[in-house]
Amino acid sequence: MTNPFENESGSFYAVVNEAGQYSLWPTFAAIPKGWIAIYGSGTRVDCLKFIERQWTDLRPNTTAELIDRHHLIGTCQRRKKFFSLR
Q: For 21, which of 47, 56, 62, 75 is 20 to 30 Å away at the CA?
């Protein structure tokens, strides 16, 4: 039995979940709960190219937001300290 995700001649969707994570999904299979088809149906190569263009930050949305917020807070605190020394 071959892996349906590796079928070069298969038909696929590019799907995304609430966390902004992308996946390739074969069109013959039901899309899992929590995922939405946002591209396709198309070839495996076309769907993977779409995912590569769209999914530029591999961190889940919640993790990315927390890290970005923490970085912003740290940056503001450093600026405040710098300007209070002047």
A: 75
Q: What backbone torsions phi and psi does residue 37 show, to the nearest 5 degrees?
A: -75, 125
**Taking the domains of the chain in order of start, what are their residue ranges?**
1-55, 59-86
pTM given for the model: 0.70
Query: What is the rounded CA–CA span in Å between residue 15 and residue 5?
Result: 13
Question: Do 25 and 48 meet the contact criterion of CB atoms below 8 Å apart?
Answer: no
Chain segment 10-33, per-residue pLDDT in tens: 999 999 998 889 999 999 999 999
CA distance 60 to 69: 14
